[in-house]
Write a structure and sequence with these properties.
Length: 179
Amino acid sequence: MTTPSEKDAASITAMGSNIIQVSGDLSVTNNIVMQQPHAEVASAAKLSRHERGQLTAWAEEVVTAEQGNVTTKIVRGALNTYLGVKSVDEMTSDMVQRAAVFLNGWRNCAFGRELSSDAMVAQVLRIWTIVPHLKTTTVEFTRMNFNREVLRSMTVWELRSTLAFAMAKWQSYWEARNA
C-alpha cells in the first residue's frame, strides 16, 4: 500500500479552483487553464469589403444630408461611439444592422423626414452626444415651452418641436464652427 506522501504528485492534482479529495488527501488546486483572448475575436467575423463599402456609402449620405456641415470623420466617430468600438477595424458583421439603423436615422433626420417617436428621441440623444452643450439649451426650451424635461414623456408634437429646435441649434453650431 502506498502512503499519500509516496504518490506521484501528478496523480493527486486536478484542474480547477476547488478543494478536492484524492485518495484521502485534501488538496487545494489552482485554475491552471488560461483563457484564450483570441478565441472571442476569431469567433466574431470582421467586416467584409462589401460591408465596409456600405458603411462608407451610408456615412457619405449623412454628410450629404447634413449639407456638408459635418465631415465623414465626425460621422464615423459618432458611429464608433454608438457601437462602442474605437475604429472600423473593431466592428463585426453583427454590428452592421445597428450601424444601418443609426446612420439611416441620422440621414432621415437631416433630410427633415417624418420620424417615429423613438427615432426622434434617438436623434435628440445623438445630437447631445456629439455636441453636449446643446443639451442645456434644448432642455431649457422644453421646460419653457412644454413644462417637461423627459423626452419620453412628451407628445409627438412636443417631440417634433424639440427635435426641430435641437436641429436648428445643431446646424447653427456646425455653421459657426466651419466658418
